[in-house]
Specification:
With 99 residues, this protein is an all-alpha fold. The protein is built from three helices and no strands. Helix 1 packs antiparallel against helix 2 and helix 2 runs antiparallel to helix 3. The relative contact order is 0.13.
């Protein structure tokens, strides 16, 4: 498989993730879209790292994975908290910080 195929796959994954974030109102689906976009960025970083023959892209991808793991922990805690108080995981209902 050539490197162009990896970049095309990354672009497709990023597009699907961005469409999920922009069009869906459910917080869990939007959250999964963000994770899909982060994984697409990781695929691009590793592809370019392999293209240049160094480990820099893989190291940056590892840091992105660490940040994504922290984001999952905090994001899911916030979503579960909103679901317990409001009874819905809709992004439109999450206006707790306004009041």
């Amino acid at each position: 498989m050539s490197l162009v195929n990896y970049l095309v796959l990354s672009g497709i994954l990023f597009s699907i993730g961005s469409i999920a974030v922009l069009t869906r109102r459910n917080a869990i689906v939007a959250f999964m879209g963000v994770e899909l976009m982060l994984n697409a960025a990781n695929l691009t970083l590793v592809t370019f790292g392999r293209l240049h023959g160094d480990l820099q892209g893989q190291v940056i991808a590892f840091f992105v994975m660490v940040v994504a793991a922290a984001e999952v922990v905090i994001g899911l805690a916030i979503i579960v908290s909103i679901f317990r108080t409001r009874g819905s995981a809709s992004i439109d209902d999450a206006n707790l910080l306004k009041s």
